[in-house]
Amino acid sequence: MIIRKLLIAIAGCALLGLAFIGFLVPILPGFVFLIAALLCFAAISPPLRRWLDRNPTWRAGHAKWRRGSGLPLGHRIRLMFWLGADAAFRAAQSRSVR
After folding, report:
1. Is the per-residue pLDDT at 26 higher than 80?
2. Greatest CA separation found in the chain?
3. How far is CA 62 from the centre of its chain?
4. Is pLDDT at 71 greater than 90 in this prediction?
5. How far is the C-alpha of 13 from the C-alpha of 75, rounded, in Å?
6. How many C-beta atoms lie closer than 10 Å to residue 37's C-beta?
């Protein structure tokens, strides 16, 4: 159990580092890594999990995610398209700056 928590904490720290890099580098989506780090830390911290469960912004989406009824397939496809388009746009911008 302790090893599992340690591995989740290491993953959360690594994702937090990627999020920080993502906020500095225009190609890497830092916000996605920040949310993933938050999920890792919530898995090992009961106070953080309780805070997320009480937070009105997070509560509905998190409850759906736990039930396995998150975004419908059409929304996921559109989200992936727009995230890919954003990454391509940022990559093109960073190349034109050089």
Report:
1. no
2. 49
3. 12
4. no
5. 29
6. 20
By the 8 A CB rule, do 87 and 29 touch? yes
In the numeric block, the tokens 């953080």 are attached to 48
CA dist 64 to 55, 59, 60, 61, Å?
A: 14, 9, 6, 5
Asked whether the whole model's pTM tops 0.70, one would answer no
Confidence of residue 6 (pLDDT cuts 50, 70, 90): very high
Neighbours of 73 (CB within 10 A): 7
Please report where in the chains the tokens 């469960």 appear, as a residue.
Answer: 53
**What is the distance in angstroms between the CA of the first residue and the CA of the last residue of the chain?**
49
